[in-house]
Give the backbone structure.
Amino acid sequence: MLSLAALSVAACSASHPGPPGGPVGSAPAGARETRFVDSLLSTLTLEEELGQLTMSPAEGLQTGPTRPAGSAAQIRSGQVGSIIGIWGADRTHALQRIAVEESRHGIPILFSLDVIHGFRTVFPVPLAEAASFDPALAQSNARIAATEATANGITWTFAPMVDIARDPRWGRIVEGSGEEPYLGSVMAAARVRGFQDARLSDSASMLATAKHFAGYGASEGGRDYATAEISERTFWSTYLPPFRAAIDAGVGSVMPSFSAVNGSPPHASVWMLRDVLRGRLGFEGLVVSDWTGIMELVKHGVAATSGEAAQLAMRAGVDVDMSDGVYSDSLPAHARDNPELRSEIDAATRRVLRAKYELGLFSDPYHGASEARAARVTLTAATRAAARAAARESIVLLKNERATLPLSRDIKSLAVRGALAADAKSAMGSWTIVGQAREAVSVLDGLRRANPAMRVRYAAGAAPEAADTNEISEAEALARDADAVVLVLGESSDRTGEAESRAFLELPFAQLQLAQRVTRAARGKPIVVVLMNGRPLAIPWIADSVPAIVESWYLGSEHGNALADILFGAYSPSGKLPVTFPRATGQVPIYLAHTNTGRPHNPEDGYTSGYNDLPETPLFPYGFGLSYTTFRYGDVHLSSDRIRAGDSIGVSVAVTNTGARDADEVVQLYLRDDVASVARPVRQLARFQRVHLRAGATDTVSFMLGARDLSFYDLQMRRVVEPGGFTLFAGTNSAETKEARFVVVGDTLVLEPSTPRMQ
Ligand code: BGC
């Protein structure tokens, strides 16, 4: 067996045209690649093909109806195409060696892992990274993650998550780029480029996965996995754009969502995976099921047995069975006398082999991983410095009354309150598999290091989720004696992410008590609330009563250092909210790009849209974020006030740093189609640019908008640009803008025909 396998690898390598490369997602396969893959495929038995379509979970990862870990025997007999949850150069080498040297065909295995916001060096959680409004930063963070992960044997990550989320009760909002499709699209493409780079065969590149296709963020009531009811127009205009952007950037794989959309679970949806994903979006890469996503078709009630679930998923176009083992177990019996199913299995296997080919695994099954390389590139001074810079850009200053911040370097004693301050694990955020809490800098550590001469006195006072208020008195007393107070409030990171939905976005009682009593005790002193959270929180009392508020999310390995850079003024805050903050949970969903109503809110008219017990506005609007300096925006200039449908329009705005210190500003451009055949969003993000401005300096920021930016889905679900008026808004956040109008003239321009009918 050994010699046959070795021969097979040799044959593969010999016929190989040199290191292949390039993203696989939307690129047609080259002729050589097709010949290679087809000839290999023709030698596989049905069982071996299903082996290629089977991902095997590492020991300890099994839940529910999963198979045992990829054992040597299974790999040797060709039952395993990929493995999830094993990393480390030596560990992956040992298994890969069995695959390439001892299995009949010597086909290498893909090693997969959720490398979401860093591998060992942990970067800000994706929602925080989105707050940087800096796609180049997101790309370079993903590149570092890929460099570390591949050195440790990983060739496939299940990131980026590109789900638009407009309901902060949904815990997975932390994994994405927030509520706006444009920011979501730009970040999706940047992260894909970072993970995959120009050539997948590069040893520091790995396959990326755009997930969860599609509409997962609309799960009802913010309850994870719950059903989603989404109109066709909203599906195409809100939830699909980031997937389209990821595909255009060449993403190699896509993962369907758990949540049924309008009654149809994506793992069984021919419409979603074939008509939309492959047909309209042109995706040619791999579709990998989510964890137990195929078996869940039984619980959804669309399949009676696991065999039926497997057939439905295969027919819909799910290529790889992540954890269930149902493809291998039940498809052989159905496929033998069913040529249609058989050819779908062939197509899926071809896509798996193609991904392996693109990664160059037939030339180097180890993809350049080695313990030596891992030691060289993993968690180095340079990656830590990158994590710190990323963390600084992700922090959002929400309030700064009477210039409370930055804190003076002369402060002799600082009281730090709130259990999250000492919680290095939370600082890393959810989805950190390889990163270690002991390697992360907590808020407390960061503040202590920032100024060793300052006396830092810490008392938890209250834990984020516990109801106990007994320790508040001590925390209160200590705060009275200090020169300044930093109060760290929010939620533990393990209360965010998957299956961590919340019914209340308000701070729990003990934390609010702590905030109120400490604030009272330290009145008149600089008091700063630092939020650590993975979703917008409703904090009306804090917003009213505490002079300074800093949103720090979960910033990763360098959380505490980056926060100290902000609090003591080494860096001026520049992050902006990628998601709207509500005043109360009852306002949810509340988001920028809602469509107008026939009765937009008017405080003088009771019969207009709003609440009778709360203002209709958010606590903090989309794009909001203060700086230690101030910026003045000039008028918005357009290249023309009339364009034809299909033409582009230029927009420019001068921005001046009117304060005393150099700083970054994220210049934001919003769009409204004033009159169209369907109601359009009151404003939507259309462009942004992070600029660095020296004190007193002015920069003119220019943007170009084209037909795609002005388009929408009309009554026939065609993507069109209609003639009529448009308004553009430029400013420092979505609510403080200057505007200019232009008109599109001529006939309606159809960019895409009607979308395939939703099923
Ligand atoms: C999540 C996916 C993740 C997968 C593998 C699932 O529970 O929904 O996002 O990639 O697990 O860990």
Summary: The chain is about 30% helix and 20% strand. The mean pLDDT is 94. Residues 631-752 form a domain with the Immunoglobulin-like fold (CATH 2.60.40.10). Residues 114, 158, 211, 290-291, 498 surround beta-D-glucopyranose (CB under 6 Å).
